[in-house]
Each structure stands twice: as C-alpha cells, then as structure tokens.
Design brief:
The complex is a heterodimer.
Chain A: H1 9-28, H2 65-70, H3 72-81, H4 86-109
Chain B: H1 5-40, H2 50-60, H3 71-91, H4 109-115, H5 117-129, H6 133-167, H7 176-181, H8 190-210, H9 222-225, H10 235-260, H11 266-269, H12 273-302, H13 310-331
The chains are: A mainly alpha, B mainly alpha.
C-alpha cells in the first residue's frame, strides 16, 4: 500500500457502464411520446420570440463572464499589458529574466 | 488486486442495491428538506414523500425534445448525470465503517473530488444541447460556479490527507475507507482543532455550490432564467436529473461525514455483530441528515441568492483563504 493517490480506471469505467445501463433501463420505463411539431416543442422564453438558432448560444468569450467580472482588477491591467508590440514583449522578457536571476542569486547565497 | 467472478457478481448486485438505496435516501432527504424549510417559513409544506410522487409523475409526463436541440446529447446528459453520481457513491463509505465501499481499493478521495464534477458537466452539456437561451445562460453560470468551488474543496481534501500522512506515513491516506477509520479530531492539538473547524466551515460553504442550492443556485434562478439548465427538460429526462440531484445530496453529505465525522456508535456502547452494524448504519444516516439539514435546508432558508459575479469572489477569496489557514493550522506541528 502507498500513501499516493490511486485509481483503477478499468473498474471505474465498468461500474460506470453498468450504471449507465441501469439509468437507461429506468428511463425506458418512462413516457416516450410527445407532440412533435406542435407548440410543445418550441423554446420557452417567457413569451418572447426566441432568437434564431445561431444566435441562441453564448459566445465562447462570454462563457466565463462571471470570472472576468470578478477578476477584472487582475484581467484589465493584464490585457492592457498585451499590446501586441514586440518591443514591449522583449522588455517583459528581459525584466522577468533579470528578476529570476536576482531571486536565484539570493537563494544561492542563503 | 484479483477480481474473481464471485466478487464481480457481488459488486454488480451491490452496485444495484447501493444505487437504489442512495436514490431512496436522497429523495427522502429532499422530502425532509422541503418539510423543514416550509416549517421554518411558517408553512405546512408538502408531505415527506412528495419527491417520490414527483418522480412518479415525471415518468408519466411527455418527455419533450425541443426543436433544434442536439437530440443525442440532450437525451444522454441526464443518463450520464445519474450514472456518474451513483459511481461516486461506490467509492464512499456509505453506512459507516462496517460497510466497506464497493470500490474500496480501486479509487480514492482525489478521484471522488473529480468524479463529482461529472454530473455538473453532464448538466452543462444538456443545457447547451437544449438550444434554449435560458439553458445556455444557466450552463454558463454552472461552469463558473463549478470552477469556483473546486479550489477550496481540493484544499480541504489535501489538508485531511496531508495530516493523515503525517500521522500514518506510508499508509493509504487518500483511501476513503482509511480516512473513515482514522478520525483526526483526537490526534491534533488546539490549533489543529481550529484548523479542522475552518476546513469544516469551508466544506459547508462548498456544499450548497455542489448541490446548486441557495445561495449558489444561480444556474437555476427560477424567477430570472426559469430553472436555467433544465428549462427545456421534462418527463423522464427531467426525472433522471431529479434523481441525480437527490443522489448527489447523499454523495456530498457522505463525503463530509467521512472527512469530518467518521465515528461509529457501536464501539462506544459496546455492541458488536449485526446489531452493532445496524446501529452504526442508523447513526450514519442521522449524521448525514444533520449535515444535509445544516448545509442545505438551514442555509437556503436563511440567505438569499447571490449574483454570479459574487460566486468566484466568495469561493476563490474568502472560502479558499479560510481553507488554506485551516490547512496550515492542521499540518503545522502543534
């Protein structure tokens, strides 16, 4: 026995497949029919006309909106720092390399 | 580990039995939750068996598939959600020390933490597949919530395993059966006790997020986005999500009990054998009920729903900081 985490994926997948079968069996006991092509299958949008299908999905940029909003004090300066100008990136590279060298120097002296 | 045909058959029967009992307990707890919440708000509330009646009604209602939905994914999501929650139960010490997890030795605490993501991911996939604007907003919110609570939950899990490794080096400290049989409270000093309490508080904050209950039910937010993720689900598909939610309540509660309240009653009162096991099982269900009532029922009655932009602040800020302080207090020798 080891103190490291352990996992047997084969057993996990077998158990998962068995449970999928049980869930499918249970689902098959339910009502299968519905009124296709009627108002029943229209999207519910509180009485509003649903937008076109291609406009219903959230754009990938907005998927993590909650994070961007919460961490905007971090993101805003970070985005501003990404100017796209190669000179700026080189300055960042030199600055970080210099900082790393100083840290390593201090670490080697202590 | 060698798997014989007898062991495999026993595991399959055990899996079916655990699935049935886990769902039964989950629905029962849902009934208690609704009843207790109603009484706290000076209402009579539905009967305790209402969740069972709900499921039986869902099964006879039309299972509508919205037009333009991605049908295969829309139908598969509830099945995957339920199956993955029950898979988690197979690794947990459900019922106390006498009842070894069915898949004990094949997965550990880290696996359970990751597997708990699967039901939520299935719901997100189902929400996106349903082609509903409400559901896609709900799915987006669910993703953000999920990513937020994983961090403090991981800190809690690592803290417990780290301390156990200090006390029992070389042992299987990530195994749920091992964690359940080695309570920490008696092996830590005053600072460690405070650390454990902080970690317990953190997992109490994480639980409503895991279960999408108030104040973290932003992905459903009935008055705002009409149940969000499940806005377009009905009939048997919705029934599966409902059952998955009930079973997840049991799974998350069992995880909390295993990490923080791994005590049995039988050694204390000096009863062993089948009677002792039965007493321990009842005691376990009682602990599960208390944990669920505290983290779900009392919380959802006492507080209001948060905004989605507040959720990462609470989880990544305060809750993670509290969990990290708890970790430090727990693992630093004192």
């Amino acid at each position: 026995m080891t103190s490291l985490p352990f996992w047997n994926p084969v057993i996990c997948i077998i158990a998962f497949v068995i449970l999928i079968a049980i869930a499918c069996l249970f689902r098959s006991r339910g009502q299968k029919k519905y009124k296709e092509g009627t108002a029943q299958t229209e999207i519910f949008l509180s009485g509003e006309e649903p937008p076109a299908v291609e406009q219903r999905h959230i754009k990938s940029h907005n998927i993590y909106w909650g994070f961007f909003q919460t961490l905007k004090e971090y993101y805003d300066p970070t985005v501003r720092a990404h100017t796209g100008i190669i000179n700026d990136f080189i300055i960042w590279l030199i600055a970080i390399a210099a900082l790393t060298a100083v840290i390593l120097l201090i670490a080697s002296l202590t | 580990m060698v798997v014989t045909s007898g062991t495999a058959l026993g595991a399959v029967i055990g899996t079916i039995g655990l699935a049935a009992f886990g769902i039964f307990c989950g629905l029962l707890y849902k009934g208690f939750d609704r009843k207790i919440a109603a009484h706290m708000q000076s209402r009579i509330g539905p009967p305790i068996i209402q969740p069972f009646l709900d499921v039986s009604k869902f099964m006879i209602k039309d299972s509508v598939q919205p037009e333009r939905a991605l049908t295969w994914l829309y139908n598969a999501a509830p099945i995957v959600s339920l199956a993955s929650v029950i898979t988690v139960l197979l690794y947990l010490p459900f019922g106390g020390l006498t009842f070894t997890p069915i898949l004990s030795g094949y997965g550990d605490l880290i696996l359970v933490v990751y597997l708990l993501i699967l039901p939520a991911l299935a719901m997100v996939a189902g929400g996106f597949a349903s082609s509903s604007p409400f559901a896609t907003v709900g799915a987006q919110r669910k993703m953000v919530t999920m990513m937020s609570y994983e961090f403090p939950l991981a800190v809690v899990a690592i803290a417990i395993a780290w301390k156990l490794n200090q006390l029992y080096p070389g042992e299987s400290v990530f195994g749920l059966a091992f964690i359940y049989s080695h309570p920490l409270w008696g092996h830590v000093g005053p600072a460690g006790i405070i650390g454990m309490l902080l970690l317990l508080f953190s997992i109490f904050v994480v639980t409503p997020g895991q279960l999408a209950t108030v104040p973290f039910d932003i992905d459903e937010a009935s008055p705002e986005i009409a149940e969000g993720l499940t806005a377009e689900y009905s009939g048997r598909n919705f029934a599966l999500f409902y059952l998955a939610d009930a079973a997840k309540m049991v799974a998350v509660g069992t995880l909390t009990v295993a990490l923080f309240f791994p005590y049995d009653l039988s050694p204390l009162i000096g009863i062993s054998g089948p009677v002792g096991s039965f007493i321990d099982f009842v005691f376990f269900l009682l602990k599960l009920f208390l944990v669920t009532t505290l983290t779900v029922t009392l919380t959802r009655v006492a507080v209001a729903r948060l905004k989605i932009s507040q959720v990462p602040t609470i989880y990544w800020g305060a809750t993670t900081a509290i969990a990290l302080v708890g970790l430090i207090l727990l693992v630093v020798p004192n």
